[in-house]
Structure prediction request, 122 residues.
Amino acid sequence: MGKTIMIVDDSASLRQVVGIALKGAGYDVIEASDGKDALAKLTGQKIHLIVSDVNMPNMDGITLVQEVKKLPQYRFTPIMMLTTETESDKKAQGKAAGAKAWLVKPFQPPTLLDAVSKLVLP
Prediction:
C-alpha cells in the first residue's frame, strides 16, 4: 500500500499540479479545498503528510495545523505549508502551530518531492 498525502489548497489547478507530481512519485493523494474540507476528510485513515496552503477561505492553513494537532489520530502527522507567503511572522506562526516545513510558491516539483520525502511518515 502506498503512502497517502493530503493536499489542501483553494486552487484546483495547484492541487492538480501537486497531485500529478506526488502521484508520479508513487504517493496516493487526497485533495481538500480548504481547512474545513480537510478536517472533514480526516476520517481515521492513515495520512502520511499534509501539504497545505496558508491563505484559504473558510479556514486558513495555520488554523488547520492547530486543529489537526488537536486530533489524537493526526497530531503526529507532519504538515508542510506550501504558500506564496514569505513573511517571517507568518512562518513563525506556522512553526508555532506545528508546521514542519515551509515551501514557497511557485515551486519546482523536484523541490517539492525532496521536501516530501524528508517529511513523510514511515
